[in-house]
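Customer escalation, tier 2.

The customer says the design service returned an amino acid string that "doesn't look like it belongs to this structure." They asked us to rerun it and document both sides in this ticket. The original structure tokens are below, unchanged.
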């Protein structure tokens, strides 16, 4: 019998959180501001991460920090805060806001504009924005959600930069179709990733997921050993739109959504159009893993 998952915390309506952190200093939301000269604003130069807390503790924080510094290296930014600083900020926001769980966005930019197109003066910028987790309702995991595909690609797709404009068209199409996510399809017809998620398909006992031209997802990496332990074989390979249409199961992964089953893509039913057993098992096992590892990291 699969273990009963701990359900997502579901506040009836999102409750505002009144504190954000700017350069490590927690301030009321109304005072949380950065300069109009910030290169994040002027030139769209920035890196970010989204992670969530479980039981009040950040999950996979070391991995998210590693990735934000890899992304920030694209604009020459070296690490300037550490895991302890993020934990302190998150703990303080949790305490002050009275929230049990948070979705945390962490944004880094080079700071204010100086000489030249990308020249800077002063210190880089670091902002932490914490909100309600606002994960999909349990019904989305029970019945699955739908997706559309669209032809486009994300700028610097292996990095998590703040340039997400290429996904806008996809999300507009998704909204029109009443779908949850839009999958990027490149010029050669390969599905690379979702606008804010990784894409995985199951065919028999094989899980296939692209690693080219997409973000190396932290959730996906966490799901892999669980899938392998449960008896699935993991392949990192290109997948076409047709591979997706004809898969037995399709899932998306992201820090907030964990493993979310997709039951229809471009109006075509995946498998029999209902949530498959593997999607359910992986999500439950992954969620249990997140809770356990967040508690372990916090105690370490
Ligand atoms: C473009 C893109 N790909 C993949 C992901 C999934 O990454 P992770 O599992 O690390 O949240 C995200 C998450 O926001 C994303 O924005």
């Amino acid at each position: 019998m699969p273990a009963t998952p701990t359900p997502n915390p579901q506040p009836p309506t999102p409750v505002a959180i009144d504190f954000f952190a700017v350069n490590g200093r927690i301030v009321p939301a109304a005072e949380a501001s950065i300069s109009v000269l910030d290169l994040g604003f002027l030139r769209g130069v920035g890196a970010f991460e989204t992670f969530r807390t479980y039981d009040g503790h950040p999950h996979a924080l070391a991995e998210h920090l590693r990735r934000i510094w890899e992304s920030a290296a694209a604009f020459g930014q070296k690490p300037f805060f550490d895991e302890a600083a993020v934990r302190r900020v998150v703990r303080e926001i949790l305490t002050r806001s009275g929230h049990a769980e948070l979705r945390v966005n962490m944004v880094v930019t080079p700071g204010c504009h100086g000489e030249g197109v990308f020249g800077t003066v002063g210190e880089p910028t670091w902002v932490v924005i914490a909100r309600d987790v606002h994960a999909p309702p349990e019904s989305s995991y029970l019945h699955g959600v739908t997706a559309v595909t669209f032809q486009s690609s994300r700028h610097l797709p292996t990095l998590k930069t703040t340039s997400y404009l290429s996904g806008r068209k996809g999300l507009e199409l998704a909204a029109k179709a009443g779908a949850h996510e839009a999958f990027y399809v490149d010029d050669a017809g390969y599905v690379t990733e979702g606008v804010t998620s990784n894409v995985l398909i199951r065919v028999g006992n094989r899980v296939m997921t692209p690693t080219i031209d997409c973000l190396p997802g932290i959730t996906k990496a966490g799901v892999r050993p669980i899938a392998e332990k449960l008896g699935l074989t993991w392949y990192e390979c290109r997948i076409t739109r047709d591979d997706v249409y004809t898969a037995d199961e399709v899932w998306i992964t992201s820090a907030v959504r964990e493993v979310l089953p997709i039951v229809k893509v471009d109006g075509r039913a995946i498998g029999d159009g209902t949530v498959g057993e593997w999607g359910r098992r992986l999500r439950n096992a992954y969620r249990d893993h997140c809770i356990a590892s967040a508690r372990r990291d916090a105690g370490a």
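Tier 2 assessment: The sequence is consistent with the input. The two ends are 31 Å apart (CA to CA). The first strand starts at residue 19 and ends at 22. Sent an explanation to the customer and offered a walkthrough call.
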